[in-house]
């Protein structure tokens, strides 16, 4: 998995910038699965940090929307504690995003994420 | 299934790698629907069992892994890529320039030094002997040949206009194998 992350993550982030919505959704799932299966904690942390900085704090609304999709995809794949610790704060700020499409995507994501977060 | 779990599949592996190298769009598109099975069946018990338990040599990155880092092996070989020795005085041997009658002798330049710092306590040095491959990492060693082919196939697919559906399918199926 470290080799895969080293060689493939750059390409995946490029697809997030240039691809269409279908490709972005597939790439989000791919990134979440890499995060879930990455056994090297440093690489996992680096990837999560990159996701937060490049997607969650992006100036482009399409990329912020993609971040919401990624959070939605991570429901049931990542552990609840890891999700809350890593992506939750950025995810919640999307509720007050200035672009309506991001807020709509946030509302759709709650359908999957709310039960995931509330499970004990 | 073309082969059982204990059969030698080396030729099948080679055939798959050659197919993945093809630039032909039709071949690539034919591989995608079955790419998940092809990846999962790329290794079987036999091929993993063939891998040695130990590998010889040092498992730390070598100097050759970083291009541009090399020794000046002779006095005449001074111009090298990424050479930072341009600040050296350009005195040539036996030209009468510099110190003394025969000129300044320039020592071969070492571009990269990874030796221990004399001011710090000695650290544990990796030996050049054999190192053991843990059983859980053997599959990763077996997949080392396949991964670059998959990534190049992914780039080819992305570069092809009008094949984004196939590209999405490829990424989804590839992700399923993680």
Topology:
The complex is a heterodimer of chains A (120) and B (178).
Chain A: H1 2-18, H2 21-37, H3 41-56, H4 61-74, H5 80-86, H6 88-93, H7 100-118
Helix pairs in contact in A: 1-2, 2-4, 3-4, 4-7
Chain B: H1 10-21, H2 25-31, H3 35-40, H4 45-50, E1 54-55, E2 131-132, H5 138-142, H6 146-159, H7 164-176
Antiparallel strand pairs in B: 1-2
Summarize the structure in words.
The complex is a heterodimer of chains A (120) and B (178). Chain A is mainly alpha-helical. Chain A has one domain (2-118): Leucine-rich Repeat Variant, CATH 1.25.10. Chain A has seven helices and no strands. Chain A has helices at 2-18, 21-37, 41-56, 61-74, 80-86, 88-93, 100-118. Chain A is globular and about 40 Å long. The two termini of chain B are 21 Å apart. Helices cover 35% and strands 2% of the residues of chain B. Chain B has helices at residues 10-21, 25-31, 35-40, 45-50, 138-142, 146-159, 164-176, and strands at 54-55, 131-132. Chain B is elongated, with a radius of gyration of 26 Å. Chain B is mainly alpha-helical and 178 residues long. Chain B folds into two domains: 1-57 and 131-178, no CATH class; 61-125, no CATH class. The model of chain B is unreliable at 61-74 and 78-93 (pLDDT under 50). The A-B interface holds A 1, 3-4, 7-8, 11, 15, 19-20, 22-23, 26-27, 29-30, 33-34, 36-37 and B 140, 144, 147-148, 151, 154-155, 158, 164-165, 167-168, 171-172, 174-175, 178.
